[in-house]
Structure formats: structure tokens, C-alpha cells
Design a protein that fits this description.
Blueprint: H1 24-32, E1 39-40, E2 43-44, H2 54-57, E3 67-71, E4 74-79, E5 82-87, E6 92-97, H3 113-129
Antiparallel strand pairs: 1-2, 3-4, 4-5, 5-6
């Protein structure tokens, strides 16, 4: 993401902190001092999934939130530097440590079945909350 905010972000500033498109709404709401609605036209509004990027934009750090993806039958879950990705061709989850393998070339799943199971469970909890019912 490229940001131009001369009063808060110095030109040329770079961060490697993760963010996601779902972080934009809570960021804009915080900047506008707005509130996210609980209902709309008599219907409950699902809670926001994202987290404000303001701490990062102000030069600080934020605890990296867990993030889920589901797009065109591609699925992933990230917690910190650990990321699982569903391999459709093999019909299995792969595990990567992004701190030393940003290109996701070394699948650590075979050596870490307990961690894979925990992360897959977290993905399914997220998917259910977001209404994703099929893989």
C-alpha cells in the first residue's frame, strides 16, 4: 500500500508490518471518528474483520492480527509469521514460516501436524463466521 500523509508519514517510510484490505474500513472510521453500525435497516451487521492501521501510519507497531483469505477457491490463514495455504491440486494444507521463507518455498506441514491442525481449525472458525461454507 502506498500512503501519502505528509503530516504523519515521512516520505520514503517503509514498514514490513502486515495489513489487509479489511483494515481500511476500521482505519477510515478511526480517522473520521465514525462508528461502525450494529444494525442497518433492521438487520444485524456482521462485525468488522479488520484492525486500524493508524498505529503503523503513526510510526508505531501493532500486534499483527490473524488474517484469513478465501478467494476463487484459494484459502489461507496467517498468524504472525506462520501461514497455512490450501493446495487445491493436492487437496491438503501447507505450512510456511514467512520470517525466513517469504516466497513460501519450504512446506513445513509434514513436520508440524499439530500446528497445521490448530491453524486449520482457526481458518474454519473464521470461514464460518464469514459465511464461507464450501471449499
Amino acid at each position: 500500500m502506498i500512503v501519502r500523509w505528509p503530516a504523519n508519514v515521512a516520505a520514503g517510510t517503509l514498514t514490513r508490518q502486515p495489513g489487509h484490505v479489511v483494515d481500511l474500513m476500521p482505519t477510515f472510521l478511526e480517522l473520521a471518528k465514525g462508528n461502525y453500525p450494529e444494525t442497518r435497516e433492521g438487520h444485524d451487521v456482521p462485525p468488522m474483520e479488520g484492525h486500524s492501521l493508524i498505529p503503523i501510519l503513526e510510526g508505531g507497531r501493532r500486534e499483527a492480527p490473524a488474517m484469513g483469505w478465501a478467494l476463487f477457491h484459494n484459502y489461507a490463514w496467517r498468524e504472525g509469521d506462520r501461514k497455512i495455504v490450501f493446495n487445491r491440486s493436492r487437496q491438503e494444507w501447507e505450512l510456511y514460516d514467512l520470517s525466513g521463507d517469504r516466497a513460501e518455498t519450504r512446506n513445513l506441514a509434514p513436520q508440524n501436524p499439530t500446528e497445521v491442525k490448530r491453524l486449520v481449525t482457526a481458518w474454519w472458525e473464521w470461514a464460518e463466521r464469514c459465511g464461507i461454507t464450501k471449499m
